[in-house]
Input
Amino acid sequence: MTEQTPAPKLEIRIIPVTPLQQNTSMIWSTQTMEGVFVDPGGEIDKLMQAADHFGVKIVAVWLTHGHLDHVGAAMAVKDRTGCPIIGPHKDDQWLLDEVEASGARYGIRDGKNVTPDRYLDDGDVLELAGNKFGVAHCPGHTPGHVVIYHPEGALAFVGDVLFRGSVGRTDFPRGNHQQLIDSITQKLWPLGDDMRFVPGHGPLSTFGQERQDNPFVADAVTGYNGAEKGEVDLISQRTSKRWS
Ligand SMILES: [Zn+2]
Ligand SMILES: [Zn+2]
Output
């Protein structure tokens, strides 16, 4: 009797928000219809309309890092739904305290400073309707940046750590380019080449694709040889199930 109850199926929609076209993800279980917003950066009405349209009950906000365009609507989602705000790592609280002040500089005036209900740390596990998500602390773009990934569905929410053909800016206060590159090669690449990722801006890609031709973090540039692969236990439990 080795049969296992399959985890409920997950769906995702990506909703670009703010003038910076930040990718807010709405993930939900089609069985329980419970869902989360990853990085609700703004345009609260547009986000809640999407939830209503698909009949999703928002049960949490997950934040990758403290930048305005990723967190601006987090408090508004909490106000409207009563859900908790989870993440980022506590080292980004100084940014969460600056959302309102920095909004004026970016022409985003409806953002609110954020007080998370819970900070995230490396190795934490998040759950949505029985589906488990891993957490990796990936500093460099900001000191408290985390990446949230779903091993079973091979999908990662990487915020501004990594993009298709690029990496996050490190010219902001407390940014560190080498730390960012180390986060990518040491925390992300071991999750596997077929891990698809939703970046904070722009199109989706896979870690394998970026290891081939990303001018900042291709193996030819970083010298990464895959020796660290296999470090992440969760991957061995991955099934062929994919996101719909
Ligand atoms: Zn950012
Ligand atoms: Zn961003």
